[in-house]
Specification:
The protein has about 950 residues and is α+β, with helices and mostly antiparallel strands. The chain contains 37 helices and 12 strands. A hairpin with a 5-residue loop joins strand 3 and strand 4. Helix 22 packs antiparallel against helix 27. The longest helix has about 35 residues. It starts with a helix and ends with a strand. The relative contact order is 0.11.
């Protein structure tokens, strides 16, 4: 790091032979004039010019023009060039560098470096008065030592030049020319500067400036020998560059950091942080009440201000007119309003003047120190400091008014209102610029979409599509639509096909073989069945019968019982819907319920049941009273019938026996009722004549098997007639089924092979329509490769992609690839817009009065704050001038007393650097903002942390 600083130090101070403040071997007409050329042009020796300048007097150099004296005209032209050059440099850099260099040092440093330069620089200005060029010493700056020479002396001779020597004030010398030269001699001696101050320099005359060639100069001079010559040159001698050297030396001594890149990186955002932070990242980081910006700002400028306030270093770039100077002015205003010190650095005078002029528009110039030339501008700065000190009582009085208290309250209220409105609008900004949902902001979605055009419903699929995925999907969409508009139509012969993905020539051959095989197989089956049964059965019907083989086999097994076969034959003469197995099962269950408990009464004939039920009624009525019971026993004719029935059922003639008999009679009646229902059906035959339970159980079992066989046989639907004849026999039925099964047994195997290459629907259509096979063949010959590619594409589609593409194809006919792509994108954008708007409802407020109202309120609040900010800024600046003032016990102000004395002195005036070293706090309270060139900064400010914000303008 030290080597780098040394390298920069050498470049900036230019201690090489190219620095004319160190090596001036000849004079350039546009920049230098030998003072001897003015000898007796005005009837006086040229030495008198030097003498009067040191005495503080003016002197006439020469007339502007003299037709009688060509020497005057030559010198006049040189003066015009010199004055023009000085004016240009002043306008460009703000420095006044016109000096008389005297006396001149000639020789070499100890390392052999050549030197020929002035020891002293007398600052002068030339004016044209009454057709005469008048020269005078500038009053605002004194005679100075050639600092470049002193630094070079220390560098090349390897000696330390003390600061007291570098900053020595020549103004302390007496103005008498003889005493002045004696004091100069004494200074060189005390400063241990080995320079031969010979007696020629004490003579009151100047030597002509001798010009040398570099080689001749090298030969004539010896290493380590330096000599003074009474030569004087009027010209441009810049004094700024050398002021940077001490600062670099101090940096090298401090050795506070090892690497320059690390130094700046520690004060800047990393690349990852830059990517994470948006261009408006800092806008919401600070409240408005802590920001004082009296100049208008845009969002970029405001973001930059808030980033800087949080301690980040930034670089602002932009062409002229983009607001860089306005940003600088707002930064200055904000920092100095908060009691901070600001330094603005620019090499160009114009850049500083632009900023200063803008500050003057807001009356901030009184609190700003502008330094173009640290020597020439000292007087103006001291006058400004003195004026600020005088105005302190006025500032105190102005800041104590009630109106200012109200102004501060208005500022806080307006700032907080802006923060509240910004919080609401920030939500809108976040929503409209958020790219996390789809990959682009909803703002772009609004611009890309058209809600008035047709759209499809992508509410389920849209979330699977992000912006980064679209290019790949659009490629699939174009291919899919190009094929799909043809292949995905129901009328296309291979519409309901198996996927052809991965198919090749072998599969094509197999497809063609199957297309030839299916119609031939169909013809074979129909022919054979017609021969066997006198009626044709196609493959699908035969296959349907074959699928029921197990059931039919079960039916044949059931019908092997001749009784069941007879029941089955009997049922065939009745419609299918009458032979209801469910009804038969329910009837069986109800009938069997009659045999539960004590079962039915069996001794009475069916026609006697009603009469006997009446007898039981009379018996129970008689048993209610003793007299009636005796009468019934003695005289009733029913007692013999009752007794016989009780005996037949093995019951006793008591209450219990009678109750059981009642139950048995009820069961018998129910039984009779159900038997009557069975007799009424007609399709049931051979009901049992005996009421024994086992007889009914056997009968129901046989009838249900017959019904089951009938149901199986009925499942053959229209093909039942194949197996029926007028004299149906079991063996004939069995043989017919076995013959048919033998004929069609290979259909399932063929079907498996066919459905490996064709869908079930296609196979069915091919069996029904012989011409379809030829159409499919023709289609395969023309479209096989395209179908393979299309099906391969479909096979690699994700579910959501497939759903979207099918939606596109099915919704619009003859849409075309371009229109399909446009429709898809518009539908997708609209779907995402609906989703994002549901997540951020504030987006919908844009079209309502609410958003316009918020926007208007914010604009009004910002405008109001802008107007108040300047007043608040001036209030705070004035407050800082007296905030820390101290008084002695006599109530006399102590603060600023010594500073006021120094800036009001007429003699022995301190340089700016010393004033700032001794009274920096007080100076910065009065002038918190400073503006200067890099050289002036090094010249007037010590190497301390004096500023809270440093702004470099124009990459200075």
């Amino acid at each position: 790091m030290k080597d780098l600083l040394k390298s920069y130090s050498k470049r900036l101070t230019n201690l090489s032979g190219k620095n004319r403040s160190l090596l001036l071997l000849k004079l350039y007409s546009h920049q230098y004039i030998d003072l001897r050329e003015f000898d007796f042009l005005n009837m006086e020796p040229s030495f008198n010019i030097l003498q009067k300048l040191i005495e503080g007097k003016s002197h006439v150099l020469s007339p502007e023009f003299d037709s009688r004296d060509d020497d005057v005209n030559i010198v006049s032209r040189k003066l015009k060039k010199l004055i023009r050059t000085e004016k240009f440099l002043f306008e460009e850099q703000g420095t006044k560098d016109l000096h008389i260099g005297w006396p001149f040092i000639r020789g070499k440093f100890s390392d052999g470096t050549q030197v020929r330069c002035a020891l002293l620089y007398i600052p002068v200005e030339i004016i044209l008065s009454k057709n005469q060029y008048v020269i005078k010493q500038r009053k605002d700056i004194g005679i100075s030592l050639n600092k470049s020479f002193l630094l070079a002396y220390g560098h090349f001779n390897e000696v330390k030049i003390p600061d007291e020597v570098l900053d020595f004030n020549i103004d302390e010398f007496d103005t008498d020319i003889t005493v002045f030269r004696t004091s100069l001699y004494q200074f060189l001696k005390e400063a241990s500067l080995e320079i031969n101050f010979n007696r020629d320099n004490f003579m009151d005359q100047l030597s002509r400036f001798e010009e040398f060639k570099k080689d001749d100069f090298e030969k004539n001079e010896k290493n380590g020998e330096l000599k003074l010559f009474p030569e004087a040159v009027l010209g441009i001698f810049p004094q700024s560059g050398s002021n940077l050297v001490p600062d670099y030396e101090k940096l090298m001594e401090m050795d506070s950091f090892d690497d320059l890149d690390d130094f700046f990186q520690n004060r800047s955002l990393s690349e990852e942080e830059v990517k994470q932070h948006s261009e408006y990242y800092y806008l919401g980081q600070l409240s408005e009440e802590k920001t004082f910006t009296p100049f208008e700002t845009d969002a970029y400028q405001e973001n930059a201000i808030k980033a800087i306030k949080q301690g980040y270093s930034i670089v602002v770039q932009g062409p002229p007119g983009t607001g860089k100077s306005q940003l600088i002015c707002n930064l200055i205003s904000d920092f100095i309003a908060r009691g901070k010190n600001v330094l603005v650095i620019s090499q160009k005078r114009a850049a500083l003047d632009v900023v200063y002029k803008r500050l003057s528009e807001k009356n901030i110039q009184e609190f700003t120190g502008l330094v173009h030339d640290f020597k020439n501008d000292r007087k103006v700065l001291y006058e400004k400091i003195a004026k600020q000190i005088r105005l302190i009582p006025e500032y105190q009085g102005a800041n104590n008014s009630l109106g200012l208290v109200q102004l501060e309250r208005r500022f806080l209220q307006t700032s907080r209102k802006i923060d509240q409105l910004k919080e609401v609008l920030d939500e809108f900004k976040k929503a409209i610029f958020d790219t996390s949902e789809f990959g682009i902001s909803i703002k772009e979605l609004y611009l890309k979409s058209n809600p008035n055009e047709k759209t499809l419903n992508f509410r389920m699929e849209f979330q699977h599509f992000k912006m980064d995925d679209l290019p790949d999907f659009l490629i699939k969409l174009r291919s899919y639509c190009a094929y799909g508009t043809k292949f995905n139509k129901p009328e296309y012969p291979l519409f309901e096909r198996h996927s052809f993905s991965g198919y090749g020539i072998l599969e094509l051959k197999k497809l063609e073989e199957i297309l030839d095989e299916i119609p031939g197989f169909q013809e074979k089956i129909t022919t054979k069945t017609h021969e066997l049964f006198g009626q044709s059965i196609d493959v699908e019907d035969a296959e349907m019968i074959f699928e029921k083989k197990n059931k039919i086999t079960e039916m044949i097994t059931i019908l092997k019982d001749s009784k069941i076969f007879e029941y089955f034959r009997h049922m065939l003469s009745y419609p299918d819907q009458l032979t209801d197995n469910l009804w038969l099962g329910n009837t069986e269950r109800v009938l069997m319920e009659c045999y539960k408990g004590h079962g039915p009464e069996m001794s009475l004939p069916s026609d006697k049941l009603g009469k006997f039920q009446e007898v039981l009624g009379r018996v129970f009525e008689a048993r209610k009273r003793l007299f009636k019971l005796l009468k019934w026993k003695l005289f009733s004719e029913d007692k013999f019938l009752l007794k016989r029935v009780l005996i037949s059922n093995q019951l006793t003639n008591d209450k219990k026996g009678l109750q059981i008999l009642v139950e048995k009679i009820d069961n018998r009646l129910n039984l009779e009722h159900n038997i009557s229902k069975l007799k009424e059906t007609g399709w049931l035959k051979d009901l049992p004549t005996s009421y024994e339970k086992i007889n009914f159980q056997n009968w129901f079992h046989e009838q249900k098997l017959a019904v089951k066989a009938r149901v199986i046989f009925s499942s053959l639907r229209q093909h039942q007639d194949l197996f029926l004849n007028s004299d149906l026999k079991y063996d004939d039925l069995k043989n017919k089924f076995e013959t048919l099964f033998q004929l069609i047994h290979e259909i399932p195997e063929r079907r498996i092979i066919w459905e490996m290459y064709f869908s079930k629907t296609q196979v069915s259509n091919l069996l029904k329509n012989k011409s379809l096979a030829e159409r499919i063949k023709t289609t395969l010959q023309s479209d096989f490769d395209s179908l393979c590619e299309f099906d391969s594409l479909k096979g690699h589609l994700k579910d959501h992609e497939k759903a979207v593409l099918e939606n596109l194809i099915n919704s619009f006919d003859n849409l075309g690839t371009v229109n399909s792509e446009k429709l898809f994108l518009n539908s997708l954008y609209i779907a995402w817009i609906n989703h994002i708007e549901s997540k951020y409802p504030i987006l919908r407020s844009v079209s309502s009065m609410k958003f316009k109202t918020l926007e208007a309120e914010l604009q009004n609040a910002v405008s109001e704050k802008l107007g108040i900010s300047n007043e608040i800024l001036l209030l705070k600046l004035k407050e800082q001038t007296y905030e820390d003032i101290e008084y002695n016990r006599l109530n006399n102000r102590v603060t600023y007393r010594e500073l006021g004395h120094q800036v009001n002195k007429k003699k022995r005036i301190w340089p700016l650097r010393k004033l700032l070293q001794e009274h920096s706090n007080e100076v910065f309270n009065l002038l918190p903002c400073w503006m200067a060139s890099p050289e002036s900064v090094s010249a007037i400010f010590p190497m301390q942390n004096l500023f809270d914000l440093v702004i470099f303008d124009e990459a200075s």
